[in-house]
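Q: Here's a chain of 198 amino acids. Please give me its 3D structure as tokens.
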Amino acid sequence: MHLTAAAMMLLPLSGCAELTIVVTTPVPTPATLGLPPIGYNHRFGNSPVAAKDGFAMERSLFADRAYWEIAIQANPIKAGFVDLSKPATVAAARHATTSLLLVMATEDRATISGLLAYRSHDAQAKYCETLLDRLRAVGYDAFTSAQVNVFFTEADQHAKLTWSTKDGYKFAVYDNDLVHTGLNPTPTQTPLPVPNFP
């Protein structure tokens, strides 16, 4: 009885010797697709170089207890698709950037009130300017226009700093510094530390 059951189980396998595995030739990917290389986080930047620098800036701010999420869009995008293990090509990619968009966002109450503790818009603008100065210092030294967008939570664009070689700096605040909300700083609150990058 047991032999018959075993024999019946083997019957479906008897035809497996005729199984043939065919290896197909992969279809070449058209060069026009321009797929980005893997190995970088799109949240921090739009290219490997921009993402590397966005992550480094975010970590440095976190070390000062300024909990900003940072993302950098550097244009032209293609300039930043280089081998990150080669310092010369990374430096060339930064120098080739002609415009920058830096987005900084936070949902951290102390970070929001810490920026608002800069009581003037000029002082808040200076805080944002230091971030652009940091990017210049690491090699983004040829861009001719830049923008910094500051978000509190996902819904509130607090401010925008713009810079160009033609017009210089301009700073606009869109939410009236959250006056009469629970996110206002206390009269004695110390502002966020001015970013001190290594």
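Q: Can you summarize the key feature?
A: Strands lie at 69-75, 99-106, 145-152, 156-164, 168-173.
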